Amino acid sequence: MRTHTLTSRNLPLIYINTGVIRIFFPKMEEMQHNIGDNQAIKEDTLVLKIGSVSMAPQADNPLSRAVLRKDIYQRALNLGILRDPGSEVEDRQYQIDLQSINIGTAQWDQLKPEKENSKGGVLTES
C-alpha cells in the first residue's frame, strides 16, 4: 500500500480575488413539513454573505519557522531552491483574507428570481 505525503509539490499555487459571494442554504423539505404547523417560523433560508475573498501562496507577514535539519536547509539555500515552486524544501505559506462576513435568514420565496415567481424579491443590502 502506497501512502501519499503532502508536500509543496502536491499543493497548487492558488491565486483568488473575488467580490461579493452569497451562499444560500434553504431548509430541507423534511424539516419544513415538520415545522409547517408552526406559523411563527417564517424564515426558511440561511444566507451567508462574504464581502470579498483574497488568497495567495505567499503571506504578507510570514510566520518564522525553526530549521530542523540545518544541513538540508543550508544545501537548499546554496542551490537557491528555497523559493522554487514544487521544491522539496520550498518555504510556502498561504494567506487568505476574508472581509465583511454576514449571516442572516430570509424567506426562500423572497429570494427566488422573478422569472420563477412573480412575487419574488431582491435581497437588500444592509
Q: What is the number of strand segments?
A: 4
Query: Sheet bearing the most strands, described?
Result: 4 strands, antiparallel
Order of helices and strands: EEHEHEH
- Termini gap: 54 Å
> What percent of the residues sit in helical stretches (DSSP H or I)?
10-25%
Shape: elongated
Q: Which segments are poorly predicted (pLDDT under 50) over 5 or more consecutive residues?
A: none
- pLDDT averaged over residues: 79
Total helix count?
A: 3
Question: SS-based structural class?
Answer: alpha+beta
Into which percentage range does the β-strand content fall? 25-35%
Gyration radius, rounded: 24 Å
Question: Secondary-structure blueprint of this entry?
Answer:
Blueprint: E1 16-17, E2 21-26, H1 29-35, E3 45-56, H2 70-79, E4 95-106, H3 108-111
Antiparallel strand pairs: 1-3, 2-3, 3-4
Write a short abstract of this structure:
By secondary structure, the protein is of the alpha+beta class.
Describe this structure in words.
InterPro entries: VPS13B. Helix content is about 15%, strand content about 25%. It is α+β, with helices and mostly antiparallel strands and about 130 residues long. The protein has a domain at about 15-55 and about 95-110. Strands 1, 2, 3 and 4 form a four-stranded antiparallel beta sheet that branches. The radius of gyration is 24 Å and the shape is elongated. The model has no long low-confidence stretch (mean pLDDT about 80).
